Amino acid sequence: MFNDLSAFAFLYFCSMKNKKTLVLGASTKPDRYAYKAIEMLVDKGHSTLAIGQNAGEVAGIKIQTKAIPLKNIDTVTLYLNALRQRDYYNYIIEAKPKRVIFNPGTENPELYQLLKANGIGVEVACTLVLLTTNQY
């Protein structure tokens, strides 16, 4: 289909999209998956916002401790258990992301239903795996 690898590479990189992402449940602890997700999102060129229990900074991204105004969010990736997610139901729905990723340990059928009823995609997946395998 392509006569040379450079044409394929050009088309591949043009098809990659910066997906503005909110990491909900962000952490400044390097051993946490939320921390690793922020690092990888930034490394892969995605605009990243973060909300967590404690203020701080990861990979140049400031972690906010309160809800912040959201515009044009593509993805919300969750690192909060189902009980802690309840405080954010309306916030997530009002942000109108294209999808919400439920990382391992964050599964929540109640929120799945609310999101789907509002036309928001639900993915039960691992953000780190999606980024690593270029499926994000």
Account of the protein in words:
By secondary structure, this protein is α/β, with parallel strands linked by helices. The protein has helices spanning 5-15, 33-43, 82-85, 89-95, 109-117, 127-132, and strands at residues 21-26, 48-52, 56-58, 61-64, 75-78, 99-102, 121-124. The chain is globular and about 35 Å long. The two termini are 25 Å apart.
Short account of what is shown:
This protein has helices at residues 5-15, 33-43, 82-85, 89-95, 109-117, 127-132; strands at 21-26, 48-52, 56-58, 61-64, 75-78, 99-102, 121-124.
Number of helices: 6
Widest beta sheet: strand line-up: 3-4-2-1-5-6-7
Distance between the termini: 25 Å
Spans of 5+ residues with little confidence (pLDDT < 50)? 7-15
Helix content: 25-40%
- How would you sum up the global shape? globular
Q: How would you sum up the major sheet?
A: 7 strands, mixed
Total number of beta strands: 7
Residue-averaged pLDDT, rounded? 92
Give the percentage of residues in beta strands.
15-25%
Radius of gyration over all CA atoms, rounded: 16 Å
Run of helices and strands? HEHEEEEHHEHEH
Classification by helices and strands:
alpha/beta
